[in-house]
Amino acid sequence: MINYERNIGIIITFYSLILIYKQFMKDHFISLSDAFCRKNMLENIQFGVQKHTNYLKFKYF
Questions:
Q1: DSSP character for 39?
Q2: CA angle (28 as vertex; 27, 32 as ends), nearest 5
């Protein structure tokens, strides 16, 4: 049972990362390689994560 719960956690984590990336792409229209080449890469990713989190908050809570 513990392995099953761990696998579900891993799947949810990767699915969340994919959703965050898709939302980030939709908002910024840049490729992942461009995002990683930019000097403010971390800020861009944090902005995308924050925007996705806010979207989920408003949609489900």
A1: T
A2: 120
- Which residues neighbour 52 within 8 Å (Cβ) at sequence distance 6 or greater? 19, 20, 23, 24
Question: What residue spans define the domains of the chain?
Answer: 2-60
pTM for this one?
0.38
Give pLDDT tens digits for 8-47.
888 888 888 888 877 776 665 555 556 555 555 566 666 6
Place of tokens 């939709």: 26
Q: How far apart are CA 5 and CA 8, in angstroms?
A: 5
Give the pLDDT score at 5.
75
